[in-house]
Amino acid sequence: MNKIDTNAFLIAAPKSNSGKTMITLGLMQALVNRGLKVQPFKCGPDYIDPMHHTKIAGQPSYNLDMWMTDEAHVQQTFTQHAAKANVSIAEGVMGLFDGAQKDVGSSAAVARLLDLPVILVVDASSTAYSVAPLLYGFKNFDKRINLAGVIFNKVASQSHFQFLKEAAIDAGVHVLGYMPRDQRLAIESRHLGLHLPGENQNREIVNIAAELLENHVDIDLLLKITQKEIQPLTNQELNIQKRFKIALAHDEAFNFSYQANRDVLDELGDLVEFSPLNDKELPEADLLWLPGGYPELFAQQLANNVKMKKAIAKYIDSGKALIAECGGMMYLGKNIITKEGETYPMTGVFDFDTSFENMKLHLGYRDLKGSDISIKGHEFHYSNLIGEEKASADYQAKTARGRDVEMPVFRRKNCWASYMHLYLGKRDKMLQMIKELGL
Question: CB neighbours (10 Å) of residue 164?
Fold first, then answer.
């Protein structure tokens, strides 16, 4: 099969909170506005940024994570979807070389594996010519990385940009342009993670960012220096009998689903969505999946939907299979207690409350092992569990560095619940999990 000429690049930064998400979303919107088909990707385990990517690009965003899965899967995921697009954009995670251990699993590792040119976003709000050694270091630290260009963020004026441009030229890095400091974009980076994709304020901000980038970044040059040939994968007919009926919760309260997980579920069964917020009964299903999301923001509405709570409790009591991740697990407890101290009753399947009072961040990769299962995923939440429910002793959780970590797994018949967001984008891993649930 002939190679396909396309464009592809990875947007990275020297550190977190440099503005790479805003630049990524703005560039996606600008390219969509030009009539190009944009395929988004996200380095690392994040499930919120891909939701915003998908809303803008109109294409599902896929995670490229070399810790939760292997190189072959990352390569296949990228190639399969990039081959169908005009431009593929991978948003990096943290700083370019920040990985689970040194640069293992970092944005740089993804760029090396996929031979992606890197566009570096540099927060220039408090610097000028001093960015020269910074850029020189990022360009020369690892010669296997193609640092194709730089976009400066939060630039105060044209004269400020001139200092930055001279620095980049002296460091040997293409200057693509800049995002000016603009009060209309003066929001915390956390905003995008706390508000749902498609909300009016988010859409307005992204449209402003796209307009500013069109005016101040040479997008034609960006496309010229990020041309890439992709060898499409050979079509392999999957001779898989759809054995299961699968119901996936998906609404404003439950929406953190890795797209690769959804794809495998769709291969293995007939996949339908339902809403714990709005529906009164469950679809017929062999496997029910309650993903993470924002149940605490919709606690009253969830509490008021008594018919759905009873339907889920009855489903579990019947011995059918259920997976609940993070927010889905909270929904299976007795109550959700908001940060204001308000208590809302949930399904009561497990004897614990989830409290957002005295919030503390729990964050990191998780490697979970049981007697017949080994899966990886990610933990990210601010809540704490209160209650008498005993965790299963059959599982042991470790961090990416191999240290033991407390992350309880709760079992009730064939119901499986924990704070862990599972990455089961490879068919063998999904089948392993399905077997664990007695299917």
Answer: 23
Is residue 47 a contact partner of residue 421, using CB atoms and an 8 Å limit?
yes
- Burial (CB count <10 Å: 0-12, 13-18, 19+), residue 166: middle
- Helix (H), strand (E) at residue 306: helix 306-317
The C-alpha angle 33, 37, 43, rounded to 5 degrees, equals 105
Give the strands of the sheet with 343-345, arranged side by side: 343-345, 335-337, 352-355, 384-387
Query: Which two structure tokens, joined as six digits, stand for 187?
Result: 């929001």
- List, by residue range, all CATH 3.40.50.880 domains of the chain: 244-437
Q: Quick check: 376 and 423 in contact, CB under 8 A?
A: yes
Q: Tell me, what's the pLDDT at 188?
A: 42
Nearest Cα to Cα of residue 349 among 296, 310, 323: 310
* Dihedral sign from CA coordinates of 406, 407, 413, 414: negative
Sign of CA dihedral 69, 73, 78, 81: negative
Q: Is the domain covering 4-230 a CATH 3.40.190.10 domain?
A: no
The predicted-structure confidence for 196-235, as pLDDT tens digits, reads as follows 555 667 888 999 999 999 999 999 999 999 999 998 887 6
pLDDT, tens digit (0-9, with 9 covering 90-100), for 41-98: 999 999 999 999 999 999 999 999 999 999 999 999 999 999 999 999 999 999 999 9
Give the per-residue pLDDT at 199.
63
- Active-site positions read 326
pTM above 0.70, yes or no: yes
Whole-angstrom distance, CA of residue 192 vs CA of residue 208: 15
180, β-bridge pairs? 155
Q: How confident is the model at residue 239 (pLDDT cuts 50, 70, 90)?
A: low
β-pair partners for 90: 10, 41
Separation of alpha carbons 301 and 240, rounded Å: 39
pLDDT above 50 for 352: yes
Q: According to CATH, where is 3.40.50.300 located in the chain?
A: 4-230
Residue 381 backbone phi and psi in degrees, to 5: -165, 160
Q: How far apart are CA 345 and CA 36, in angstroms?
A: 47
Domain 244-437 superfamily per CATH: Class I glutamine amidotransferase (GATase) domain (3.40.50.880)
Report the distance separating Cα 93 and Cα 65, nearest Å: 10
